[in-house]
Amino acid sequence: MMEMEEAETIDLYELQYSDLSSPSTSSMVDSIMEALEPTVPGLLAVPIASNLRSHLLSLSRKLALLDLDTRKLVLKEHNLGSDVPLRNPDRSVSPFAMQLKYAKSQHVQQTVSECYGMEFENLGRSFKELGFCMMELGFCLARICDKAIGGNELEQSLLDSCAAKGRLIHHHSHLDALLLKQHERSRATSKRRGNNVKPLEGSESNSIASNVNSGGNHLNLWQQWHYDYGIFTVLTTPLFILPSYSETSKTEDTFSESCFGECPSPTGHTCLQIYDPNK
C-alpha cells in the first residue's frame, strides 16, 4: 500500500441531494458531467443520511468481533452474508453483504428513527434503508447522464440488473487482530478444558491502547475499495473509532464496545484508495 505522506489529496465535487435528484440548471448538469470525465477521478460527494450512516457503521466492529455462533445467528436473522471466511482469525477485514432488490427500493427519507433498536435488533432494516438511499443516488446520477448523452440506457441498465450488493465492511485494527486471536484461543480451549483462558491483563491492554492511540506512522489508515461488477460504486464516508482507556477500568472487558467512540479522521481525509489500472 502507498504511504500516506506520498498520497495525493483529491477534492471531491460536492452537491446537495436536491441538486442531484432535480438539477435546476443546465450548468449544474454540465458541472456534474465534468466531474465524471475520464481525465478526473470521477467522484461526487452528496451529504445525506449521516445519522443512519453513523448508526449502521458503528455496528460493523461489534459484528466483526462477535463469537462465531452468535454472529452466524445474527447474520441469518437479517439475511446477511459474507464473501470472506469469518472463521479465519487472521482476516484483515470483516465484510457483511446483502442483495438489495430494486423493486423494493424506497425513496430517500429524512427520518430514520424507526431503524434504531437495541444492538442488532434492526440491523437488517437499517442496512436496507441506507442501501436504498445509496441506490437512489445511483439512479439520480444515471438519469443525469442519460439526459446529457441522450436516451435512457444507463438507468435502464440499472433496472435490468434488478439488484445491487450492499456491503458493510470493518477494517481490523491491530487491537482487533489480537482480540480475534484471543477469541479463537478461548473457543479452542473451552472445548477442551471448559473455557479457562486468561484474559488480557490491564498492563497488556494499556500497552495496546497506547499503541492504538499514539497515531504514529505505523498506523496504516488506507482502505482499499474496488469498482466491483456494477455500473456505479456508492460509498459512505468511512467511520473512524478509537478506544478510550481508563486506568480505573482494569476489568476483564477492558475494550468493551462502550470504550470505543467515533473520532475524526486522523489525517482529515477519507483515506480511500482509488483504483489505478496502471499499478
UniProtKB/TrEMBL annotation:
Recorded superkingdom: Eukaryota
Region (Disordered): 185-209
PANTHER family for the chain: ISOPENICILLIN N SYNTHASE-LIKE FE(2+) 2OG DIOXYGENASE DOMAIN-CONTAINING PROTEIN, PTHR48253
Protein name: Uncharacterized protein
Encoding gene (name): LOC100810874
